[in-house]
Amino acid sequence: MVRLDDLGERELISRVLSTLRPAPGIGPGDDAAAIDLGDKWLVVSSDIVSFRSHRPESTPWEKVGWMAAAVNFSDIAAMGAEPVGFIASYALPPDMDEADLLAISSGIDQCAEFCGTHVLGGDTKQGEGLICGTALGIVSKGEILTRSGAKAGDLVAVTGPLGGAAAGWYALQAGMDFPEAVDCLTLPVPKVKQGRALAETGTVNSCMDISDGLSATVHEICRRSGVGMEIVWEALPIWDGVPLVSEATGASFEDMVLHYGGEYELLFTFPMRMLETLKEMDMQFSVIGRVVPGEDVLLVKEAEIQRIDDRGYEHFRP
Does pTM surpass 0.85? Predict the structure, then answer.
């Protein structure tokens, strides 16, 4: 028998998809699914937050609720959609305090409010501690963003700094008093406004949220688009606290920036000729590289070129 930890999440998903009939619209394989509504897409994302895996020790339950909503709205943002609702289903241990559940619910609702929408319903069952969230969004047919449109010659950009979630995790493990870093990990901010702004330009060729780490994200867009990438280390926007945490804990600075998940910034590609147009938008972003022919994913660092391994976060792996 093959165990799930022999496969890892990505191979597991591939094998599950092989058992399914092809779906109409935009089906499995993107940040979210999209259902054809005529001149619009209904975008749907579903993601699970586990108390055991996603709640660092002593994290307030309100933050757990926020995260359960944010990870789903981030997928809606990556497709360029406008959030229109959220559904929350709970599998809860019977000895859990009512106040903790209400705090989770409040956190979910706060995130929905931040994203301009509401909680529409859900379900509760007895279980070991899971929140399954489903976010809904709407986007016009000509504006939807996917992972598969990057073209050789495009520029590669990200919406914000990298490494903060890794800094938060290592700070917690080391017992550092660094609440700003911990917030990067436990209070991810879905980039819904940025996703809509990028979609409305009509110039973005591909987009994905960096939930499993930068290396996993660039590899996935390259696989889906049939291209390669060159990422420039010196161009990467790095969260200010990463050097401090790396020095204090001994964690690899490069690994924290390239391979740690939980970022939830958007990575996107667009034609080089549109750079000045995008700079005129009321949105911060950093150009970090370019799309190239072939399939190699490379890092240019101090004028040396090396391969970027696909080492982002993966469930069922150590």
Answer: yes
